[in-house]
Amino acid sequence: MEEKTTEQEQKIEQTKQEVKKDMQGFASSTKRFFKELLDIRHNTDKTTTIENIKGNIAVKGHTAWILVFSILIASIGLNVSSIPVVIGAMLISPLMSPILGVGLAIGINDIDTLKRSLINLGIMIGLSLLTSSLFFYIPLFQEATPEILARTHPNVLDVMIAISGGLALIVAISRPQPQTNTVAGVAIATALMPPLCAAGYGLGVGNYNYFFGAMFLFLINTTFIALATFVIIKYLRFPMVKYINSAKRKRIARFASFVAIVIFAGSIYTFYQLILQKDFTEKSQEFIQSIKDEGIGIIDEDKDDINYRDNNISITVYGKTISEKDKKRWNNKLSDLGLEGTTLLIQGGKDDTKIINEVQSLKEQFIKNRKLIENREVNLRSKDERIKFLEHKLSSKIPFLKISREAKINYEGLQEISFSHQLKTNFSKVDTLVIFKAKWFHYIPKKTVNREIIKLKKWLKTRLSLDSLVVIKE
């Protein structure tokens, strides 16, 4: 019996060992799969990558004109709020090349490439600002569209695009066959060109708040793209530039490391501040909405009412007196939302019942007057229709076509005749006059015409059986 039990235990233990081996094999296979899937070090062409980046840094000839045209296209796209047009400009923009050069130079300790990249980047920025500012200087294109305004201040999403774009592009161009037309190029252009065009808009229209805001966004995105390039260059272990002078190499290495650390620290701090600003804005909007849900009327809402820099929220209340109890309750609500220390600035907050009643009274009077006007318009339309009916009825009694033919036979010098009715009043009664206008050929003597008009008038009275009518010589 004991032998049988021992044998079962051995089988169980053997089964456990087999399962353990299978799990280890599965874990090993999974690890190997993900390593092969995500590994970017394998098959990296470091030499060609360095040559390609260095070769595209310079701004001259074709590159300068391509930059000018791409900035012009992007400016037009922002002006008409057309995303497809902006994307078209992104695909041809050479703006990222010197930024990649900065990241590469710091990563491989190449001071000469760093200088050259910074100089060419400055030239590209100047050329881009000149092109876009001249475009927006034209009055026809000075409208501040939503696409332009969206690029006049930094946003967390813009920074994430810059980081992702920088990582994607350096990975793409480090392959044996560089994939420079991937979405990485679009992502980088998205982060760089629109804010640079918006900065040119600020210069073109003389709004320096737009200019500095857009340039701040551009510089943040430029920094993160260079930082992303630096990180990948270090991760892929690109060869460092060696100098004959060992002391000089160490100084340059220390300088490059210092620059990299400063850029990295500044980038992290900026990104963190943008996250805090976004969180503050969302919580502030939630707080304002909660006040509205209480039935409090808030007017003149503006994005500037939420001020992250000064840590305050401004609201303009109407139709209700805000008591100290209300203020205390709202401040407690700010604390509950994690906005401790935020100052709530309340404007208005007085009893506006009298003003509201006056507005309501004016509104009712306006509606009453409007109804009176509408009734008068209906009466006038009715009278107009009656007049038209009477004119039609009266004209139907006069066979004008037949009369005109007979008049032509009787009066050879008659060139043209017309007929109409005219209303006449002495303010006590309204009379309808029958009027004929007769035009004679120019060769008929004036005396003859005057004589013929008298005869024509008598004939018309007799022919139409009318007591009175008027014949006018034209």
Task: Give the secondary structure arrangement, pairings included.
Elements: H1 2-38, H2 46-55, H3 62-79, H4 83-92, H5 97-108, H6 111-137, H7 146-149, H8 156-173, H9 183-205, H10 208-235, H11 246-293, E1 297-299, E2 306-307, E3 312-318, H12 324-336, E4 343-348, H13 353-397, H14 400-410, E5 414-425, E6 430-440, H15 446-464, E7 470-473
Parallel strand pairs: 3-4, 6-7
Antiparallel strand pairs: 1-3, 2-3, 5-6
Structural class: alpha/beta
* Overall residue-averaged pLDDT value: 78
Quick one: overall form?
A: elongated
- Domain module count: 5
Q: Kindly state the percentage of residues in helix.
A: 55-70%
Distance between the termini: 143 Å
Cα gyration radius (Å): 43 Å
Order of helices and strands: HHHHHHHHHHHEEEHEHHEEHE
Number of strands: 7
Q: For this entry, what is the oligomeric state of its chains?
A: single chain
Low-confidence stretches: none
Q: What is the number of helical segments per DSSP (H or I, 4+ residues)?
A: 15
Percent range for β-strand residues: 5-15%
The description of the largest β-sheet is: 4 strands, mixed
What report would you give on this structure?
The protein has about 475 residues and is α/β, with parallel strands linked by helices. It has five domains: about 1-35; about 45-240; about 280-350; about 355-395; about 400-474, 2-Layer Sandwich (GMP Synthetase, Chain A, domain 3). The chain is about 70% helix and about 10% strand. The chain has 15 helices and seven strands. It has helices at about 1-40, 45-55, 60-80, 85-90, 95-110, 110-135, 145-150, 155-175, 185-205, 210-235, 245-295, 325-335, 355-395, 400-410, 445-465; strands at about 295-300, 305, 310-320, 345-350, 415-425, 430-440, 470-474. Strands 1, 2, 3 and 4 form a four-stranded mixed beta sheet that branches. Strands 5-6-7 form a three-stranded mixed beta sheet. Strand 2 (about 305) and strand 3 form a beta hairpin. The longest helix is centred in the middle third of the chain and has 48 residues, at about 245-295.
